[in-house]
Amino acid sequence: MQNKPNFINTLTEAMNHVAQAKDNKEINQLIEKLLMDFTDSERATLLIFDKERMLLFNDNGEKTQKFSVVGSDIGLAGYTLNTKKSAIFNHVTSEKYYEASIDNPSNMRIKGQIIVPLIQEEKIYGLARVSRSILFNRNYTKTQLDMIKSIEGFLIKIINIMQGGNKAQSMDVNKQEVEEKITQAKKSSINDSEEINSTMLFLSNTVHDIRTPANSLYGFLDLMEEQIKDERLLGFIANAKESAQFINTLTDSILERIKYEKESSTSEPTVINTIKFFSNVANIFTANMFKKEIHYLIYIDPLIPKEIEIEELKIKRVLINLIGNAYKFTPKDKVIEFRIEYNALQKSLTFSVKDTGIGIAKENQEKIFEAFEQAQADTSIHFGGTGLGLAISAKYVQDLGGKLKLESEIDKGSNFYFAIPIRIIDESPAHLSFEDPTKFITILTDRPACIDANNMRKYLQDLSIADENIAISQSITPKTTHLFCFEHKLSEEIVKECKERNIKLVAIEEQLFSITKNPKYKNLKVISENSYYGDVLYSAVSSQRKPRIFIADDNKINVMLLKTILESEYCTIEYALDGQDALNTLIKGLKTSRPFDAVFIDKHMPSLSGIEVIEQYKEQEAKYKQIRPLKVISITGDPSISNEEKRLYDLIVSKPFSKSEIREAFTKSVTQ
Q1: Count of H helices and E strands in the chain?
Q2: Quick check: 364 and 376 in contact, CB under 8 A?
Q3: Which residues, given as ranges, of the chain have pLDDT below 70?
Q4: β-strand 525-528 against 504-509: which pairing, if any?
Q5: pLDDT score recorded for residue 627
Q6: pLDDT at residue 261 in the model
Q7: DSSP state, residue 432
Q8: CA nearest 69: which of 82, 60, 58?
Q9: Which of 68, 73, 229, 444 is the most buried (most CB within 10 A)?
Q10: Whole-angstrom Cα distance, residue 570 to residue 545?
């Protein structure tokens, strides 16, 4: 690896040559050499994005490569463009979306690849791609990815030049800023020339043995998810998939960094949907808490911003370690409480994992975060483990801008907590406060001190329900408009009374699936203890109906992206990958008086095209006079839409779509 001044000299030399270059072919060759020098690669390509034709191409004279980013066979290049995320692929040919004609047009004996989408203010300019062959013993690391990111602005300027921009203006690059980014990239680097020792070989083989069943598990869960319609079962499957996926994330981390201090370099800030992300992490432990008969409380501040940017791997690793440790050291019938509080003034989140377990002696608390230390001498005998989890967690919390702290007392329990600053992407609260003062909520239980009942009260109070409008009671109070009934109080008489008095009823399971499996209560809305239930509390009490959104697209990547974007909105989402399935589901909504409010639909699908789906649906919709017409949003990548076809759509969003475009389409569809 070159030293820092050489990189700046290389960049300066490239800039000078670009200024003198006679055509795009020469500029392209100069940039390819620059990328190879910066990343120690054998091949490099600068791909330009043409949004109108939905193409990626490189302007290299006779060797020009062009390929579409629409459809299913779009390769790793198309995948990274659509997801807008930089990626390292150290075993390219084994990747799911690999297409040789797109990702390896030179037909080299390819091993590794880095792909960086070039994006500025949500506009996609193209991709930078570098490749190594099997002759390289070393894998790509985040260092090389960061080296490309350090000159991302320069590469965008080059694309502007190649498309007719002003050379003089485009050569205006802040070298000091680039130098600082290079320095930062080099700080996180590791010694790539280090030989793989016997320990690494052992770890590599072990990790492979772990990954194989984890991948199989994820695959079977994926198949089950397509067959099951029950929303709560789908939620548990999603949690199981999250766990299987996290196993692979951890094993990747082990292979990438043999020492845990180096693992932090694999984590990058990403944008997350706060409620979805943190509730999924918390719910990973739901089934285990039921099995061990631990009382598990989850509280996520309903006023938390919808979206934040955070290092996803690090915060997930910390929370899973802390909740997992609490689970191991907390006996039956004790309590574990996981809380997230939002401080709007400081723009920070405070996390707390508190248990009433065995506790930690004061003399051991100072060394609890040291690697390979256990708080009690006999802990490893009873529970196993090396103590590395807390050492890694403390390191990661520090990386995130906070400090992991501990309060504990023997036989009374422990509280691990920390606060970290956050970068807010969407500052609107996850749940809006209720404005209707006439709502009266009764939480029905024979246990007035029930911890779940008081946790629910806290949620409702934070959503502006007055304390005097919330009753924890053994009977249904006269003013009740909404009833949350614990399983031990639930009866057919309660259900009948709620129907007669027009009271909204939600049942609370005290054993997993105990109410769901009872045919007497098959139509009830159900939540479970030991799980995150903030969303259900909100939707049950809110007077606002959840819009129903449908996605029809045969490309799973596009469906995934749309679902991810829309899940931060207040709506329910269903999808189909086949035109006939889409039509059947839309018509079923009509027949069951639960029509969809909007559909995001692609033109090209198997069985029926998007056009045929909408035409046939509208014929059926005309028979139902009292419903709001379905809003139709085209998400086709086909630029040649006829005027006749355009009349079928209320809105048109071209692929690849941005988050803001989809959200704007959603807002217009459900409010107009």
Answers
A1: 25, 24
A2: yes
A3: 1-6, 60-64, 137, 165-178, 181-212, 215-216, 249, 251-268, 370-388, 637-640, 671-672
A4: parallel
A5: 84
A6: 46
A7: P
A8: 82
A9: 444
A10: 9
Q: Where are the strands (E) in 54-166, listed by range?
A: 55-58, 65-68, 87-89, 110-120, 123-133
Give the tens place of pLDDT for each residue, 412-431: 999 999 999 999 988 889 88
Q: Is 523:423 a contact under the CB 8 Å cutoff?
A: no
pLDDT of residue 1: 40
Q: Please give the pLDDT value at position 21.
A: 80
Distances, alpha carbon 385 to alpha carbons 79, 325, 375, 382, in Å: 39, 10, 12, 10
3-state class (DSSP) for residue 409: strand
For residue 57, which of 156, 119, 127 has the smallest C-alpha distance?
127
Residue with tokens 């709502």: 439
Q: Can you tell me the distance from the alpha carbon of 656 to that of 636, in angstroms, rounded to the nearest whole number?
A: 9
433-468 b/e (C-beta count within 10 Å ≥ 16 → b): ebeeeebbbbbbbeeeebebbebbbebbebbebeee
425: tokens are 């992407």
**Distance in angstroms (rounded) separating the CA atoms of residues 259 and 240:** 28
Nearest CA to 504 among 471, 532, 470, 480? Answer: 480
Strands 43-50 and 441-444: unpaired
For Cα atoms 192, 393, 302, give the angle at the middle one, nearest 5 degrees.
125
Query: In this structure, is the dihedral angle defined by the CA atoms of residues 523, 529, 532 and 536, taken in order, positive or negative?
Result: positive
Strand 441-444 and strand 470-473: the pairing is parallel
- Coil, strand or helix: which one is 298? strand
How many Å apart are CA 10 and CA 110, to the nearest integer?
26
Distance in angstroms (rounded) separating the CA atoms of residues 389 and 318: 8
556-598 confidence digits (pLDDT tens): 888 988 988 888 788 889 999 999 999 999 999 999 888 999 9
Would you state the structure tokens that stand for residue 5, as one six-digit string? 């001044």
Helix, strand, or coil here: 640? coil
- For position 53, what pLDDT does the model report? 85
Going from the N-terminus, what domains does the chain have, and what CATH number goes with each? 4-187 (3.30.450.40), 259-429 (3.30.565.10), 441-541 (3.40.50.2300), 548-671 (3.40.50.2300)
* DSSP output for 559-583: HHHHHHHHTTSS-EEEEESSHHHHH
DSSP helix/strand/coil, 352 = strand
Token pair of 501 as six digits: 């008095």
Q: How far apart are CA 270 and CA 311, in angstroms?
A: 6
Instruction: Scan for tokens 């003399």, then name that residue.
Output: 363
Per the listing, tokens 């408009």 go with 481
Euclidean distance between CA atoms 387 and 523, whole angstroms = 47
* Residue 251: how many other CB atoms lie within 10 Å: 19
At which residue do the structure tokens 């809110």 appear? Answer: 542
